[in-house]
Amino acid sequence: MVLVLLTGSVALAVIAFNPALLKPAIEHWFKTNYQRTLKMTGDIQLTLFPRIDLVLNDISLSEYQQDDRFVSIEQLTLTMPVMPLFNRRLEVGDFYVSGFAAELVRDQNGKFNFADLLKGDDESFISTFQISRIKMDNSRLRFRDDLTGRYYELDAMRWTAVQVETDQLQQIRMDARLSVSEMETAEKQLFMSPVKTQFEVADVLFKNQGLVIRSILLSLQSDFDHSDQLPAGRFSSHFSIAGLHWSDEMLASQHMHMEVAWQHSEKIAQVVYDSALQFNTDKMSGTLSEIHLAFDIFHPDYMRQSMHGLFNGYLNMDWPAESLEIGMQGKMDDRAVNAEARLLGFAQPDHRFRLEIDALDVSALLPAESSPSSSSSPSSGSSRFKAEASSFPDFSWLDDTGLSGAIHIGKLLAGDLQFSEIQLEIGKGDNFTDDQPE
């Protein structure tokens, strides 16, 4: 009889419980522990038996020690069983968020406005967790970077995660529109239109202070549907990483792939890139090996026809030594090209390079009206070079780069003219390696 009365009393308490009574206590707890103001202006729906069903409406969290809004959520829905909690295990069936909005800020000192929220206790009541499905829609994330003076905004954001557990997850997928603008003139978009963004991660395993990821995919594409008028150009980019491993301070990937395509009026650029990665996160040094690079470029102001390139090479990185070294060998329009470059110093850079080109046809690079004329006047009987100074690109920006090196061209063609063994020096004319004679 005592057991029956006790069970009945608990059942009546659950039925008669008013979750709105929890609002002042929760808001006071956030104010005391995080020095942030939590507002719960909407209704709270809570069921405790036979499972926990929680629905929150119109909640917001302020900035640290300020009243400005940091995060707001229109609706949050949570479903979970009760019994696993007695074993310090959190098992959530569905976690749904709608109308999420947040503004992240990095100040001039490089500090983020959410850094205080990342400081947690070493021990937690929950030892393990499992979430079957997380879904977020109709959401917006804005990032203000005071160091670069730009705004980055993801709107119309949809985000899903499947089978999220303490040491692994099955899939994360995000779809959104990306806009980038200058802070001083927020209305000035750096893109012609917002960019459709898709991000997906599959099969992540956390183990021994490391992780293994089967695949990462990132896709960017011009969003014509969002623009009031058809943009003058098109842009798309696809980036993928396969077999990513991070353990013992070593980050490695079996295969990295990237494709970029850009078109604006008659200007076209297409790039395909593949490589492998080995990087020591402790020493901040590593190598991009087995680089394969292919490109097609056309600019009507500087070329009569498109330029094709196919290269193989490597890239060595050493951040503490402020050193980057790259070597590429291949062909450009069926002409052999060998290039080496080295960057020393980031604050006061010293750039050295060596470029060897088997043959270069200048007349093919310049537009038709500016190319060396293959037809000559009857009186002169020789080629006339008609290129205007404005036809050539402006290289004045090279003055402040600390660039020095040498260019060797085996054969230079300019209409009817032909030159052999051309040697050009830029800057100080230093050789690529210090042990070579000048």
How would you characterize this protein structure?
With 438 residues, the chain is mostly beta strands. The chain has a domain at 17-182. It is 7% helix and 57% strand. The strands form two sheets. The protein has a 21-stranded mixed beta sheet that branches. Strand 22 (403-414) and strand 23 form a beta hairpin. The radius of gyration is 30 Å and the shape is elongated. The model is unreliable at 373-391 and 429-438 (pLDDT under 50).
List the helices and strands and how they pair.
Layout lengths: L1 H15 L6 H12 L3 E3 L3 E4 L3 E12 L6 E13 L7 E10 L2 E6 L21 E18 L4 E16 L2 E15 L12 E13 L2 E13 L10 E15 L2 E15 L2 E14 L4 E14 L8 E12 L4 E10 L2 E10 L5 E12 H4 L6 E2 L10 E2 L17 E12 L2 E10 L12
Parallel strand pairs: 5-7, 6-7, 19-22
Antiparallel strand pairs: 1-3, 2-3, 3-4, 4-5, 4-6, 7-8, 8-9, 9-10, 10-11, 11-12, 12-13, 13-14, 14-15, 15-16, 16-17, 17-18, 18-19, 20-21, 22-23
